[in-house]
Amino acid sequence: MDPVALFSKAVLLPALLGGLVLGGAHLAPARIQPLMGALAMAMAWMVGGSVVLGAMPWPPVEAPHFLLLLGAPAVVVALLPPAAGHALRALLAAGVVYGMSEPKRAYAWEGATGPLWLGLGLGLMLGAWVAIDEAARRRAPAASALPLALTAAVGAMALGATGSVVYGQLGGVLATALGLVAASTLRSPAAPWSRAALTVGTPAVVGMLLAGAWFSELPAGAAVLLGLAPLAALAPKAEGRLPVGPLALSLLLSLGGLGWGLAEAGMGSTAAPAGMPAEPW
Amino acid sequence: MRPFLAALAFSALSSVALADTFEVDTSHSTVLFRAKHFNASYTYGRFNDVTGKVLWEADPTKSVFDITVKAASVDSNSDKRDQHLASPDFLNAAQFPVITFKSKSVTKKSGNVYSVTGDLTFHGVTKTVTTDVEHVGTGPDAWGGTRAGFETTLTIKRSEYGVKNMLDAVGDDIRLTIAVEGVKK
Q1: Model pTM greater than 0.90?
Q2: Can you tell me the ipTM of this complex?
Q3: How far apart are CA A45 and CA A43, in angstroms?
Q4: Looking at the 3D structure of chain A, how many domains does it have?
Q5: Which B residues, 48 through 87, put their C-beta within 8 Å of a C-beta on chain A?
Q6: pLDDT over 90 at A12, yes or no
């Protein structure tokens, strides 16, 4: 793929969309700032993802379609109080994990494999979703935003390097949008739009990792390590503008996941043209 | 009235007897594909797992073709490439495990060539295609059975089936050669 087109799709477009709305959030009255933050993330993800994948079918077919659609109800989740938000999170996570796993349940998983994967997928998605939200409420959103953005960026590399350029691009969309949010929290560590934006982005990050394990070649162990990385938001030493504890733990987990993926894929040394597999074939 | 009913029953029985079901013999069947690589050359590959059946009627225009190909059986003589072809970038074989063709109508063109129209489902997208199918032959095998062979070549645009990735590296036109041998059941 043309590197300019790749950059435009996976980086420039989500940055532009998210940046515009986040910029608006700075100027908006405080009561609508969470809505603006959630909308910024949802727009960046849903529009950027649709540009990468093409027209969205209805009903959703492929795993990323479910995750793009999840962006809309996740905006509602972001605006609910904690108890109601967590209940809706559980419902949505269960529905999305079940929906996107349909081909695996129908054709691949046998015996205990299906329930194990469903339980693990739901646990990772819901665990990260709740942990990021709780950390963002109790601490400054920077403690959640930086680990999540880091997970998204390293996850995008792992997805791209282990078999699917398209999944890598989708990860790039998420990493770009969450990177913007993380950057905004460095300037305004407690800004109310950040927590809402993170609420929309979290299930998409974990969902893409599950999709990589189920439908591409991301090793299960790598997906689990990367999926656990957002939980680092709850790690100690999260005070201040730069939350050292969460950042260090998420870096450790996500790089562990990336290393696992690269080792199993037998890659890591070959420089590939943008949008192409690591080795010519 | 009785002779008429008897004739009707005989006619029905005859038509049943004249329909042969041939089950596809995977080891003697092939789905070849050809795609342009960087506009420089054609790269060929095949799918190794082809199953299905052909209901071959005495009146071939009433025949039915029902072919299933496992997407994960893609074989392009390169393990790395096969892995990428099966990934979500191309076939997405875990999401869409099978490629199917089910015929809807058969019309005779000339000699042993028939125009077959049917639904091709590939990458989760179903489109109606029409292709010329040659009935290569029918004959006895060495084990007392009967075999029949059919072959067709058609070209599809992969982008129309939602396989749009890396179109500048791997061409949009995919030429398929489907050759099946069936064993009479």
Answers
A1: no
A2: 0.71
A3: 5
A4: 1
A5: 78, 80-81, 83-84, 87
A6: no
